[in-house]
Fold each of these.
Amino acid sequence: MEIIKDLTAKQRKVLLYIQDKIKQEGIPPTIREIAASFGFSSTGTVRDYLEALKKKGYLKIAPKKSRCIELLRRAGFGIPILGNVMAGPPDLAFEEAQGYLDLDDFSSKYNNNTFALRIKGDSMIEAGIFEGDIAIVRKQSSAQDGDLIVALIENEATVKRFRHKAKSREHLIWLEPANKNYQPIHKEFSLIGRVIGVLRKYV
Amino acid sequence: MEIIKDLTAKQRKVLLYIQDKIKQEGIPPTIREIAASFGFSSTGTVRDYLEALKKKGYLKIAPKKSRCIELLRRAGFGIPILGNVMAGPPDLAFEEAQGYLDLDDFSSKYNNNTFALRIKGDSMIEAGIFEGDIAIVRKQSSAQDGDLIVALIENEATVKRFRHKAKSREHLIWLEPANKNYQPIHKEFSLIGRVIGVLRKYV
DNA sequence: GTTTATACCACTCATATGTGTGGGTGTCAA
DNA sequence: TTGACACCCACACATATGAGTGGTATAAAC
């Protein structure tokens, strides 16, 4: 992922400035704010930069609207992924990021079907889901064999692995913990959603 | 956490509209866009709503700037945490969220000391860190006993638990894997940062 | 040698936009 | 009954703002 490689130094500075403004103030800057920040005396100069950045695919501009700059995915938002552990030293220069951690996949940005649940208990530790972890869940009413799901069993929500096997004309569905100390669950349940991510925060 | 409880139904609708616009289009709406959306024929009406929402602490308004609406923390951004698993059914009404998952803690929003590394190997599985997981790392040059850290050993980055014991005038420092099959590491290393979070995505 | 891209400038123009003034109705508590 | 508040309206005003036109200079590319 070659990020910010095909830009000139000045173009990169302008792009970074816009990113900063959005991150810090929540809204993109106006053309004149950019001009003032860089000491440009003409808005045309900024327009040239925006055109260049637009042409290179770093941003989108909605015409006729104020603060219309919209950064595109490749502009490198979010947390930079700088490398792999156990694979040599990561290059700590942010410009060399392999990619960017895209938390939008999780956010309820484009839909309101995503929510989070805090994990209690240890029934999924072998799947790396520990007490206190946060499961990020997408509401859905169907699942495939092997999916991690949130199920409602006897009025209690739980995270388990969804199992579905077709055995000689019969469909077997059950829930599987990821802990040797627990037994598979064959009770009736209702499917709430699928776990699309797990997040753990260390204080 | 009583979210959106002290608002009238209409005020809530306006707030939700603003949230939606920010999420979907990246920038807050203008006063006239709000008015148009709700069928108000006067911008003054919107101003009244914004004043009410501002007074109740849901948003901030920067004067004299276009699209100046800034949502405040309590306005309930991010992914709603709807409850705990294994603790009764979660209330799937978003208005009843216990809180909101704050990914800002991780983001390099206000600093550029945060980055991510993809985990290779199984040396930390007992700490719930699996191959393919993404470690979110804050750069720092010191750590406390028990911290999960990213260390550079012989030109290779690795995640391990930092151990530091003072034993009769001596300071012992070593690195501890979270896997019985691996041995503690007493080699020299340099500290890159502390793991402040772990993220796992399921496709 | 011509073209293209980058990197600036000055100036104008239409309008998008926040703000202000002043008005109205209804409800509910003091 | 007075006041605070929610909920609407019309209209005016200054300016913030995107967009347009038309320049200059440099350097690389073809």
Amino acid sequence: MAGANQGLVKRSPVMADVAARAGVSHQTVSRVLNEPSLVRPSTRKRVEQAIAELGYRRNMSARALATKRSSLIGVVSPAVTLFGPSQMATAIQAAARSSGYATISATPEPTSPTEVLDFFLTLGVEGIIVIAPTRQTATEARRLAGTLPVVAVAAGMRKVRPLHVVAIDNEQGARDATRHLIDLGHERIAHIAGPRDWFDARARIQGWQAELASAGLAVPEVTEGGGWGAADGYAAAQELLALPSRPTAVFAANDDLALGAMRALHHAGLRIPEDVAVVGYDDVANTAFYEPPLTTVRQPFDDLGRHALEALVATIEGRRPEAELSPPQLVVRESSVGSAGG
Amino acid sequence: MAGANQGLVKRSPVMADVAARAGVSHQTVSRVLNEPSLVRPSTRKRVEQAIAELGYRRNMSARALATKRSSLIGVVSPAVTLFGPSQMATAIQAAARSSGYATISATPEPTSPTEVLDFFLTLGVEGIIVIAPTRQTATEARRLAGTLPVVAVAAGMRKVRPLHVVAIDNEQGARDATRHLIDLGHERIAHIAGPRDWFDARARIQGWQAELASAGLAVPEVTEGGGWGAADGYAAAQELLALPSRPTAVFAANDDLALGAMRALHHAGLRIPEDVAVVGYDDVANTAFYEPPLTTVRQPFDDLGRHALEALVATIEGRRPEAELSPPQLVVRESSVGSAGG
DNA sequence: GACTTGAGTACGAATATAACC
DNA sequence: AGGTTATATTCGTACTCAAGT
């Protein structure tokens, strides 16, 4: 009786239906789907045709139940509609799909990290990617790592087993940006930092400091507005302007901060880059159309997302993932060099 | 033997384990989880305690298999990292979770819409939300609607059963923006439009035209750059500047276009808003820090996302969803009224 | 004996039906 | 009876093992 069409409602076809139509057992159908090489070509053809004719599709729930593999991956990322995290989420998703996984995203913020984990575990995810910008999030990621495969995306975090960490080299990006300003002849280069509890913010501070030091320049205090937004950059720039010896260049920890800073500079009647050069970080959309176009550091978020997924899949499949660190890339525009290109 | 801990590997506990520990049958455990009112309080307590002690968690795959309900919802959205779609996706996700659903997002772009549908159907999603900015996408959404519950987010699309459509009233937003400029005394108000195949672009054109007409003003030709980016806005603005009688105000179909247009105006040595007033659309992050801060129209994407999800859940549960149309809101800044406020 | 195919059962939760106090 | 609990079966796929060529 199994598989027989016994009602009026047309249910979606199951293996047994395909088997009946092809004149084989459901087991053979299963084999055609999973190990086609074990089935005689002529039989396989018949089964494949039956599948096509019926529009048969595997039932993932049943499959997951039998294999204990859900093909689901959880992605935890901060709720902030920030450029980096959202770019990454997209990249991870695309990479996952082409690897046969579906991603479920969730933010810990309306509720709690524990609640998110619970949500994921109930769904039966095979692994989790945690976009962990702060130490707190990273610590939670580490806690999970004992339970199931976890990959953290966290710049500047120590890579301690069993947690695998993927990151962009923020320190290098910051050094590149700072070097660029030094090469232009600047000697008083300020830094507008992001929130200190973010790895990215700290790494960029360190890169800036390191490059200044290696050039024999004085390392001023870090300025910060408290957040990553343009309003914070505006406030930070105002502080800088009140300083006894005003900097001739500002390296902002992201493009939004830079945007706010540029506005503050304009308000103060200063020209960019003639009076103060500005460099941002991220290369978000439209930075080329800021006033003036913003020199910034592009981050390979797509790469990073792919790497994160690859590392997670490797962990799930029991392989040992390789450490990955993608290089950022300086994009020079007018906010640092002027329209004449120098 | 069922439920007995017979191996060395500690598997996650199943219902039978909970039942054994609580001294009841698995059926009672199931009832405690699904219809607690049918279980005597004392028994329920024991079961709940056993659940807590074992850290038991329901297996969604098994549950989905038995109930034919996956608790999964598919979200199709264009790959573009555009403000609207990504905001919506986030809102939908949050709303879904609080309704007990998980969302799986996918973009049709690397592959095909059919492929995405296949992906979703194989996963067993209970319904799909299609963010359909163009007629083509909307048509595909309509095709699906016969197969399973579908809600489309599409501005300006006819609401024909069985497809339920949710949207923001773009025409009203455009009218508000245009009205604002008319009230400021402008008589030559140009419009920089988005790609014509987008519903949103068309609705904004219509709103602009309608408001001009109702004010007895001439309706000029629409200008467009071909896309939604700042570069397109820049190009479109250059066209406007070459016109015999230059407009005194520009209403751009989104903030990026406005940003590009403002840059073109600056390049031409024009002041904003004294020479040309500019209004955008979307109120993306940081528009308050543009040069000058941009007057724009805020869209309630969160609301829209929630509405879309609510409509889909209603459809899934067999209820009849209500039509929803959220109002946009004009945000006045200096790009139209100047720093003095008028 | 290599190659194919089939029968039977496990996976974990839900539920209809029957049994219990 | 009336409120609770137990037994048996179902969902659709995968996989072990055995049987057929």
